[in-house]
Amino acid sequence: MISGLHVLALALVVSLAANAGLGAAWLHARDAATRTTGERDSARADASACSDGVADLRDLADERGRRAKAAQDTAAQRRRQQEAMAQLILSTPASVPGDVCASAQARVDSWTRGRAAP
Questions:
Q1: Residue 107 in contact with residue 95, Cβ under 8 Å?
Q2: Do the beta carbons of residue 33 and residue 25 sit within 8 Å?
Q3: pLDDT at residue 1 above 80?
Q4: Number of domains in the chain
Q5: Spatial contact of 111 and 101, defined as CB atoms under 8 Å apart
Q6: What residues make up the domain containing 23?
Q7: 3-state SS string over 37-91?
C-alpha cells in the first residue's frame, strides 16, 4: 500500500506539473497578446501615415488643378487674341490687287517689320 507521505508527494508533483503547464500557457498567451498589440499599433501607424500621404496628394492635386486652370485661362485668352488677328488678316483686302504672291510678300514684310521693331 501507498503511505500518506507518498500520496502527498505524488499530489505535490502533480500540482507542480500543473502549475508549470499553466505558467507556460499564461506566458504564451501574454506573449501573443503583446505581439498582437504591437501589430495593432503598427497597423494604426501605417494607416495614419497612409492617410497623411493621401491628404498630401489631395493638396498637391488641388494646387496642380489651380495652376492648370490658370494656364488654361491664359491659353484661352491667347487663342482669342490669335483668332482675332487671323480674322483681321483674312478680312484685310489684298495689298496688291490681282497678285496674291506680291500681296503675301507685302504682308510678310509688314509682319517682319512689326516683329523687328522694339
A1: yes
A2: no
A3: no
A4: 1
A5: no
A6: 4-116
A7: HHHHHHHHHHHHHHHHHHHHHHHHHHHHHHHHHHHHHHHHHHHHHHHHHHHHHHH
- Tens-place pLDDT, residues 48-100: 999 999 999 999 999 999 999 999 999 999 999 999 988 988 888 888 888 88
Contact 74, 80 (CB under 8 A): no
Determine the Cα–Cα distance for residues 16 and 21; give it in Å rounded to an integer: 9
* Rounded Cα distance, 83 and 89, in Å: 10
94 in Cβ contact with 100 (< 8 Å) = yes
* 95 contacts 108 by C-beta, under 8 angstroms: no
Asked whether the beta carbons of 107 and 89 are under 8 A apart, the reply is: yes
Residue with cell 506680291: 102
Give the count of alpha carbons within 13 A of 94, CB side only: 10
Which three cell numbers, joined as nine digits, stand for 118?
Answer: 522694339
Single pTM value for the model: 0.50
